[in-house]
Write a structure and sequence with these properties.
Layout (H helix, E strand, L loop, with lengths): L3 E3 L8 H14 L10 E4 L1 H7 L3 H8 L6 H17 L4 H15 L3 E8 L15 E6 L1 H13 L4 H10 L8 E7 L5 E6 L11 E7 L3 H4 L6 E6 L2 E6 L5 E5 L5 E5 L12 H18 L3 E8 L2 E9 L16 E4 L1 H4 L7 H10 L4 E4 L2 E5 L1 H4 L2 H14 L1 H13 L25 H22 L5 H18 L2 H25 L4 H5 L7 H16 L3 H13 L13 H15 L22 H10 L4 H25 L4 H18 L5 H26 L14 H10 L4 H15 L6 E3 L4 E2 L13 E2 L1 E4 L2 E8 L13 E4 L7 H4 L4 E4 L7 H9 L3 E3 L4 H4 L5 E5 L4 E4 L3
Parallel strand pairs: 21-22, 22-23, 23-24
Antiparallel strand pairs: 1-2, 2-5, 3-4, 3-5, 6-7, 6-12, 7-8, 8-9, 10-11, 12-13, 14-16, 14-17, 15-16, 17-18, 19-26, 20-24, 21-25, 25-26
Amino acid sequence: MAYVLGFGEIDRRQIAMVGGKGANLGELSRVDGVEVPDGFCVTTDAFARTVAIGGRLDELSRLEADDREAIRVRSAQIRDAIEAFVIPDDVAAEIIDAHARLGADGAYAVRSSATAEDLPTASFAGQQDTYLNIVGSAAILEHVSRCWGSLFTERAVTYRLRNGFDHKAIRMAVVVQRMVFPRASGILVTADPLTSDRTVVSIDAGFGLGEALVSGLVNADVYQVRDGNIIGRTIATKKLAVEPAPAGGTQVQEIAPERRDEPALADTEVLRLAQLGRHIEAHFGSPQDIEWCLDGGAIRIVQSRPITTLFPIPVAADEENRVYVSVGHQQMMTDAMKPLGISLWQLTSRAPMRDAGGRLFVDVTKALSSPKTATGVAEALGKSDPLIGDALRTVIDRGFVHQVPEAVSAAAPPAAPAPIETDPAVVTELIAASEASLATLIRDIRTESGPSLLDFIRADIQELQRVLFTPKGLQVINAAMDASFWLNDRLQEWLGEKNAADALTQSVPGNVTSEMGLALLDVADVLRPHPEVVAYLRQVEQTGGDFLAELPGYPGGNEARVAIEGFLDTYGMRCAGEIDITRPRWSESPATLVPTILGNIRNFGPGAGRQRFADGLRDAEQTKEQLLQRLRALPDGEHKAEETARMIDRVRMFSGYREYPKYRMVSRYFVYKQALLQEAERLVAAGVLREPEDIFYLRFNELGEVVRTQSASAELIDERKDAFRTHQALTPPRVLTSNGEALTGAYRREDLPTGALPGMAVSAGTTEGRARVVSDIAQADLEAGDILVTAYTDPSWTPLFVAIAGLVTEVGGLMTHGAVIAREYGLPAVVGVEHATELIRDGQRIRVNGTDGYVELLSQ
């Protein structure tokens, strides 16, 4: 076993032996033009030879990432145990010999290097410990033990729990490296840390050791470089520096007043650093986070790690400037998707979509290349999401996409389609055709298997597109939207009413998503009279699992099971993030619904579903009559009232259909999923896959190849699982450029109360209440009158809407599902509130103004 390796014996492939930091330093020491202070690594074999704590890690793995006190106690116990181990003589001898060869009288840095550190998928930056200016063999051995123990700092344990890393799978190496006592030091990143623009190098610099900057002890000078030119420079007042202490270790010293405002670097040094950063980035093939020291005239590199927080850039066929718009922000599902889900959505959509970071984006470059279409795209997308619209206008104003004026054409514009009649039979026919198509799919797919199943699904996706994008269906949806916009515009102009259509669209007929929320109230009515069933479901709420089979064992359990299964027969294909076919559906995990059912039993009485719909219908009819009466009192009032009445009828007749196409798309997806999982079971039985869910990490065409060849790459599937875990930690931007710049946009409003959070008004009214910040529908604990605050809501969240008084989301637009259902239920709602789940505290009292589009924080 190798207990010590010199840098010259190490390259980037030896992470398992020397950890991420050690592997990168060994690799850097081999790169021409890069100076790395000499050193060696105490390998993971030495750690394994010395440390025996396996039994303690099972208990650690069972902790919750939010249980800070338990993590603090357990991690401290493990650290103490590790530092109490005596380093075996043979291990100690190798460390001492390596130290002597470098020079026993010198000072050294002793630095942790875990096997899950400084990786392309996880940085673990700052999670383990580093010790500087360590002198003497005894001190080095002592600090090697401390580095081993720092694998179990409270912050490192929490990081692993949050990011799904197995404690047992990670081992610790230690880097021992000659100390550099620099005039200046700092951090260089080869992408703008604020915007993620890969064309910018950003350099933080300060006097003395870099520990002052890394620890946040002082403000840094900041320099930005693009294409060999300094494009930004901020010189900080630097009062303190970390310097070596005479007896070993470090100390904080005050900087002389006359030097505090001096630049840490000359311009020539800034440009040399930027050039060196690009050189290192090119070697590793990805943007880097680099720690550097200025030692006399030499730049010495003491660390380089991949930047793991940058959102990946979609792959393009050329190197032209490109602009991408997030699909997830339009679909109210910004979570990472698995490869099968991504590829199915790409096959379903007619828009050309690129994927990156587990998300989908539409390339709008071509549309932005024309002045006419660029404005139209920004306006159209801005109407559904103002932040996307503002970000696109920023891109346009910068001239990022070269615009070419369109040639003047003498051809007549295409004729607009004839307006569709306000006839309920139109919607009835559309739904009947969709139902018949789905029934055909269910009948015919049963006999398919093997390669023919994949061919069958690919062909059926064409039928799905036909149903989704039928011209008449799009006419109905557009007619409802146009009527809604007309009502808002005209009634504000004529009567001063803001967002008047919101109240008029309560309890519209035929909205399958709002009906779903009311149907779960009906389920609660069946269960409420049976206390034993309710008590059992409270246990299920805590433990989860398959509970339906156990229900008949309780008085009233048969009726309860029939009611829940009836709900699942109609809505069981739904779930959070349902556009990703790989997500578990309610039919596959019915326990997800239990908290909401129990909440309905607790918060409502019998008949609440029917009463809720009747109340909304009455409010809408009263609003209609009041508006028409006011209109008739105006000049030309009869005409205005007649026109408005027609538009109200139109919006109420057609608005419900808005939710139907996606409902049946998700139904179709579930049929595909069930068939594909049956095929996956056959692949597992044949030894091709380890588990059926492995197919989720293959694209559709790759799955077809696996089925055809009866061969799969376990290595590829494992890589995809690791990548998905990384993607889950990323926040997708609304707009992304080919330079990697993430643009969030801004509301640019000056009409807000002090401290209010701006957003988009999507459902009129104002309400106050307790904010409940919820990230998982299965964990929602809502009381009547609460205000739901979450990242996004798709149709699966609708059952929660019956209990709440208002809605706030970080993502959304005027016609996204949360907005539509909020209007139908008469809930004030504001969407597109950036960082709402961070800025609003759970339990805080807030006011939601769904008419003007902002949220006020009423308590601290």
